[in-house]
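Contributing: when you submit paired examples, paste them exactly as shown. First protein:
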Amino acid sequence: MAVSKEQKQLFAVKIKPYKSTAEDLKKEISTMRAVARRNARIEPYFLFKIAVLGIQRANTLVLMSRLSQEIQNIKNDSYLNDARRELNSLIGDLMKVVGEDIDGTLTENQELLPLIAQVSWEQRLHLCQGFKESIQNVKNAMGESSKWRWSFPDMHMRLATLARNLLDFKAYERISKDPSHDDYRPLQEYFQFMMEESQLAAQEFRTKYELSTRDVSDLQKIQRIFEFQKKIYSFSGQKEELKRVSTSLDNVNEMIESLIGGKKDKDKDKSRKK
C-alpha cells in the first residue's frame, strides 16, 4: 500500500525531534572518542560513558523505526541496522579493554581489571542490562524474517563474554562469602545476569542451528558457552547447575562428533568414487 502525501508530511514532522536526538548523541560520542584517544589512562572510563550514549542512540533509532511503522506502515530497516551496528561496535570496544575471550581461565584478564577499577558493580550491571534490553528491542523490531536475524546469537555471545570479562572473579569469591558487604547484592545480581545471558546465547545458537544453518560451527559455539558455564558453576560450587550443564555439554559434544564423523564418511565415499 502506497504511502500518502499526508502520511509522509506527518512522519517528517514527528521524526524531527528523534532525528535531532540521534544526531546530537552521535556528535557527543564522536567528541568523547577524540578526547579519550588523547589519554590512554582515562580512555576505558570514556568508553563506558560512550557505551551509555550509544545505547541511548540505538534505542532512539528503534523508536524512529516504530514511528515510521505507525505512521507510514513502513519498517525502517536502515535505522534498525544502524542501531544493531552501533551496539555491536560498543560491545567490541569494551571487550578490547577487558578481554575478548570466553574460553580462558577466570583470572586470565586480572591485569586488565584495574583499568576500570572506578566503575562500580552496579554500573557494570546496569550497562550490561542496558545492552541486553537494547539488543532485544532491535531484534524484536526487525522481526524473525529479517536478513539480520541470525546475527543476534553472536551479539548475545559477545555480551556474555563482555560480562564475564568485566567480572573480577577474585573479588566475587571474596565478597560472595560476606552478605554484609556493600557489593554483595550487586555482585549476586551481576553473576545471575552473566549466567542468564550466556544461556540465552546458547539457546539462540541452537535456534539458529535448527531453523537455519545446520552448521556444526553453531553447535561448537554452544559447546564453548557450556564449557564456560561448567567452569563457572564449578568455581561457585553450584552442584545442581554444574550437573545440568555437564549433561547439556555431553549432548552437544555427541551431536558435534556425530556430524563431524558423518562428514568424514561422506568425504571418504566421494574420494572412493573418484
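Second protein:
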Amino acid sequence: MTPETALCDTVRFTAARSALVAETSSFDPWLVTGTVLMAQQACTLALRAAGDPIPEQAGATELLLRAATKDRLPAPFTLPFGASARQSFDRLVEARNSFMHPRGTLWHVSQQTLSRGLPVATGTVRHLILTQPVLNDLVSADQQGALRDDLETIDSLAEFLDEPV
C-alpha cells in the first residue's frame, strides 16, 4: 500500500467513525486516533515530497510543526499552524495517547476537544494535499474527490459539536 492510499484509507475510516459519533452521540477513541493519524500522514507526504528528512520517531505535533516551518516546507506550501491550532491539536493527541496507552482510567474526550481539534486535522490534510500540495499529483484526481467528501463529513461533525446546546 502506498502512503497516498494509506492516507485516503485513514481519512475514509475517520469520516465513517465521525458519522457513527453523530448517530450515537458517544465519542469514539478510534475517531480521535484516525484524526491524529491522517494529519500525520498528510504532513509526512508533503514533507517527503519537499525533500525533508523526517526523523524515524517524529511525534504527531512535531510533524505539523515541521510542515509549518518555511525552511522545511517553503511558501506557499507551508502549513498555517498557529498557537491556537497547536493547542487544539495537542488536546487531540493527548486524548489519542490516553486511549493508546491506558493508565487504568476511563477514556474520555470532550466535545470541545473534538469541535476544535477536528478542523485542525482536516485543515492540515486539505491544505497539504488538496489546496497547496508540493506536487500536484500527491493523490489522484479520484482520490482528491473522495478526500474532499470525507473531510467535509468530518468537518460536519465538528460544526455539529460546536453548536450551542
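If you have annotations for the second protein, write them as plain sentences, like these:
Residues 13 and 56 are 25 Å apart (CA to CA).
Residues 3-24 form the longest helix (22 residues).
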